[in-house]
Amino acid sequence: MPSYLPKAGPVLLALVAALQLAACTPRQLIVDSLADELSASGQGNESDLDLLRDAAPFHLKLSESVLRQNPGHRALAESVAAGFTQYAYAFVAFDAERIEARDAKAAERLRGRAARLYERGHRHAMAALDRGAPGFSAALAEGGDSSRPIVGRDRVGLAYWAAASWGGWISLSKDDPDVVADLPLAIRLAHLAWVADPDWGQGALTGLLATFEAARPGGSPKQAQVYFDRAIAQSGGRSAAVLVAKAEGYAQPAGDRALFESLLRQALTIKDEADSPLRTQNEVMRQRAAWLLDQADDLF
Fold first, then answer.
1. How far apart are the first and last CA of the chain?
2. Tens-of-pLDDT digits for all 300 residues of the chain?
3. Distances (CA, A) of 254 to 183, 229, 259
4. How far is the C-alpha of 275 from the C-alpha of 286, rounded, in Å?
5. 69: which residues sit within 8 A by CB, 6+ positions away?
6. Helices in the chain by DSSP H: which ranges?
7. Residue 23: phi, psi to the nearest 5?
8. Is residue 148 within 8 Å of residue 192, measured between CB atoms?
9. What is the C-alpha separation between 194 and 85, in angstroms, rounded?
10. Dihedral of the CA atoms 108, 109, 115, 120 (nearest 10)?
11. Full-model pTM
């Protein structure tokens, strides 16, 4: 999963630049410039997750505010959708899992918050897809070949985050049948994106299809394994996310503890270059891998 969590410095510089330009530049140009900077600064490679946790809410709120003023800025819409999705996963839903055993009520509150954040990211991504191709959502829901929407290569990122956030929202909404009923649409959207660019995100998109295949009612574990292995190959061994996803989505349901632990240990051994775009994502997933290894006795 590519990382869109924020870097603080460029955002502050953009705000200063906007103030300096305000006296002589039309307002829309300032908004456009800030949107460009925010969408770019979201793609960070920060490894200090505590710093990211503290910085992310301000970055997300500012980005969302600018997006409302400039809803046609596709890169910012993608960054906002990605940011809400990743914040929900890394800092809210994961916290819920970690405290579940000692405080079930607090964990439930966190899951509810994570679901709302996933929904928020999903709605931003779908709004951008509809803006770029009017009627996209309706055609996706229709489902027939004659009305199947096309995801252009320039919108694969938006479609990925729309589908990923949808999946997270669905996974935390088991008591809401209307939300759960949309799982086939989320899978369909991910597949449309994959058809357009199967290598997108160094295996992230293929890994999402694998996770969906493993989770959907009637899904094929064999097909999920094929997707997982392809995603690992696409990442070139540089993504901890696809290894953790295979451990949770394939090895754990199969009751294969040896494979489960092997995949998680592989994830822990991944070393990132300082400028790696996967650095933040990998740090998140290494923390999850270590936690899952600690929970192995309870999971098997």
1. 27
2. 665 555 545 555 555 555 454 544 566 666 667 676 777 775 556 678 888 888 899 999 999 999 998 999 999 999 999 999 999 999 999 999 999 999 999 999 999 999 999 999 999 999 999 999 999 999 999 876 555 788 999 999 999 999 999 999 999 999 999 999 999 999 999 999 999 999 999 999 999 999 999 999 999 999 999 999 999 999 998 999 999 999 999 999 999 999 999 999 999 999 988 778 888 899 999 999 999 999 999 999
3. 22, 16, 10
4. 18
5. 31
6. 8-21, 27-41, 49-69, 74-87, 94-99, 104-132, 136-142, 156-171, 177-180, 183-196, 204-215, 221-235, 240-246, 257-269, 279-294, 296-299
7. -75, -20
8. yes
9. 19
10. 180
11. 0.88
Q: Which two tokens stand for residue 70?
A: 């400039």
Rounded CA separation 19/25 (Å): 10
Residue 236 token pair: 């070139």
What SS3 class is residue 255? coil
